UniProtKB/TrEMBL annotation:
Record's protein name: Photolyase
Family annotation (InterPro entries): Crypto/Photolyase_FAD-like_sf, Crypto/Photolyase_N_sf, Cryptochr/Photolyase_FAD-bd, Cryptochrome/DNA_photolyase_1, DNA_photolyase_1_CS_C, DNA_photolyase_N, Rossmann-like_a/b/a_fold
Coiled-coil blocks: none
Keyword Iron-sulfur: no
Natural source organism: Coprinellus micaceus (Glistening ink-cap mushroom)
Gene3D superfamilies hit by this protein: 1.25.40.80, DNA Cyclobutane Dipyrimidine Photolyase, subunit A, domain 3, HUPs
Cofactor requirements of the protein: FAD
The organism's taxonomic lineage, starting at the top: Eukaryota, Fungi, Dikarya, Basidiomycota, Agaricomycotina
Alphabetical UniProt keywords: Chromophore, FAD, Flavoprotein, Lyase
Chain ranges of the Photolyase/cryptochrome alpha/beta domain: 2-139
């Protein structure tokens, strides 16, 4: 007999993990051991366009977790299951073979995963296995906040954020409280000879079909080291430090004593600098938050603690307030994912835009989908490789290709460029991001792409098209970001890298692919958006 915790790809940590904490409490109460399970499902990786970087990051984190769990005498079993539709039965067979009657897991809100969990509960009930599913991904879980006028989930961010802040402030201890760290299996149960060998297994070094080449693997490991402690270092590097409690241990290289926040901390200037890609301005926590290596509630708690905030400010203008407001986007997009399953099925949120015929159409996961005959295959290839000739677009794409991450504004710039200059289907870009980003996350990625393509929740209007050169001045005023990622332009001094005329004159072969700065293709994109299947509001 035991209690099983099924760890998912989005909860790769021990602290502030509701399902693990509950499993551990229940096991203690019943005097039985806890066992942890992780399912590798290559078909789900394919269905979600997960790239090798993300899978490698998951496996690296699992290795750390396995060791941490072993210190608590909790074995971690990793099992590969195919086909994916058999996951519920196979997991329950495994759990049943241990005589286990209770299983705990945190909810994943993607539609395939919700269906899997519904089936899990259906199959488990007749077997007498109780499945307990818990919200753990957000501060305010999906389904709590509704627009008072419609009684439906919010589809606009600002009123969502205001209600989010009001709701959180009314009961901060409920929303931000930390759950108990799992306790060690006690001595009598941890010795169970039958139990451990069956349930303990090695974490594989790779998953077939998702292998990183050696160089990329080294780079990813250096840039994005695994483990909760490392994630906490990243948080503290951004927030600054004051004397921290014991859980943070000695992992505090930037400790500035008990003085608390110093002017050097990036968060202090986040309100002014967050769009700057030429500086280290944002937290770079997204890889850790998207895989759940760090708890979003811990991020909030630590920020509030650091700035001695008693309440969250919905409209505050300080760096910390602005940062908190940005993080709320993550809850917003999770809420959208859970409330509108169509967004995880490749559908536009605004269904009236489903009929747009893009220049290069690739229906997700449909190998037989015919491409549009006038597809801009070369344009797409250039975009992917960072060889469009537009310096800021190329720098951003090469940054993504190089480090699996880029600031938010360059993401918006390249997304708009793909959808509104090249007029290529946003799903093609969404998929490419998922394959390359180490922080690839369906809710935020889909939200960002549909915002840029003007098909999503609270989108920019279809006629709003970023001029990449103006945007370049905004996000890379020094030109350092472009020079770093586009070495062909390194001779150019200052922000001239934003100007097509200057770069064209100076950059020989590279310059020759720079297209002249044309006015945005407004008439073209407008005609897409007024295709017969839509009744345009604009
Ligand atoms: P910070 O500015 O320090 O913000 C802190 C955290 O808040 C982030 O780590 C993230 O968890 C959250 N956050 C901030 N802005 C947003 C936002 N606009 N939407 C959702 N969450 C936000 N984010 C991902 O985590 N995964 C993705 O796959 C992803 N794809 C994107 C695709 C496009 C086209 C766009 C425009 C945005 C995308 N984002 C995605 C959102 C955002 O760009 C990243 O979260 C952010 O750049 C990560 O850097 P950071 O951790 O330094 O952010």
């Amino acid at each position: 007999n035991c209690v099983v915790y099924w760890m998912r790809m989005t909860d790769l940590r021990l602290s502030d993990n509701r399902a693990l904490s509950k499993a551990s409490e229940k096991a203690k109460e019943d005097g039985v051991p806890v066992a942890a399970l992780f399912v590798i499902s290559p078909q789900d990786f394919i269905a979600h366009d997960r790239g090798a970087r993300k899978i490698d990051f998951t496996l690296r984190n699992l290795r750390v977790i396995k060791e941490q769990l072993a210190n608590l005498h909790i074995p971690l079993h990793t099992v590969t299951i195919m086909p994916r539709k058999k996951i519920p039965e196979k997991v329950l067979a495994l759990v049943g073979s241990l005589g286990c009657k209770r299983m705990y897991a945190n909810i994943e809100y993607e539609v395939d995963e919700l269906r899997r969990d519904i089936k899990l509960c259906e199959v488990a009930a007749p077997l007498g296995i109780q499945v307990n599913l818990t919200h753990n991904r957000s501060v305010i879980e999906p389904g709590v906040l509704f627009a008072p006028s419609s009684g439906k989930a919010y589809a606009v961010y600002t009123p969502y954020r205001r209600l989010w802040v009001k709701t959180a402030n009314e009961d901060l201890s409920h929303y931000l409280d930390e759950v108990a760290y799992p306790s060690a299996n006690d001595a009598s149960v941890r010795g169970s000879k039958l139990f451990v060998p069956l349930f303990d297994s090695e974490i594989p070094n790779f998953v077939e079909g998702f292998v990183l080449d050696e160089e990329d693997s080294k780079k990813m490991t250096q840039t994005w080291p695994e483990g909760e402690d490392k994630a906490r270092e990243v948080l503290l590097r951004f927030l600054g430090t004051k004397a921290r409690s014991t859980q943070l241990g000695a992992v505090d290289p930037l400790a500035s004593g008990a003085q608390g926040v110093t002017k050097h901390n990036r968060v202090v200037k986040y309100d002014e600098d967050r769009d700057r890609a030429d500086k280290d301005t944002t937290s770079r926590l997204s890889p850790y938050l998207s895989s759940g290596v760090l708890s979003i509630r811990e991020v909030f708690r630590t920020t509030m603690d650091m700035f001695n905030l008693k309440k969250i400010d919905a409209d505050g203008k300080t760096g910390a307030s602005k940062w908190i407001q940005e993080i709320i986007w993550r809850d917003f997009y999770t809420d959208i994912l859970a409330s509108f399953p169509r967004v995880s099925m490749g559908r536009p949120f605004l269904e009236k835009f489903a009929g747009i015929v893009w220049e290069n159409h690739q229906a997700p996961h449909d190998p037989n989908a015919a491409g549009n005959p006038d597809s801009d295959a070369e344009g797409l290839m250039r975009w992917k490789l960072g060889k469009t000739g537009v310096p800021i677009v190329d720098a951003a794409m090469r940054c993504i290709n190089g480090m699996g991450w880029v600031h938010n504004r360059p993401r918006m710039i390249v997304a708009m460029y793909l959808t509104k200059h090249l007029m290529i289907d946003w799903r093609v870009g969404e998929r490419y991001f998922m394959e390359k980003l180490i922080d690839g996350d369906l809710a935020s990625n889909n939200g960002g792409w549909q915002w840029s393509a003007s098909t999503g929740v609270d989108p920019c209007p279809y006629f709003r098209i970023f001029n990449p050169y103006n945007q370049s001045e905004k996000t890379d005023p020094s030109g350092d970001f472009i020079r770093h990622w586009v070495p062909e332009l390194k001779q150019i001094r200052g922000p001239a890298t934003s100007s097509p005329r200057d770069t064209h004159a100076m950059c020989g072969e590279f310059g020759s692919v720079i297209r002249p700065s044309k006015p945005p293709k407004a008439p073209g994109i407008a005609s897409k958006f007024s295709s017969s299947s839509m009744h345009s509001e604009y």
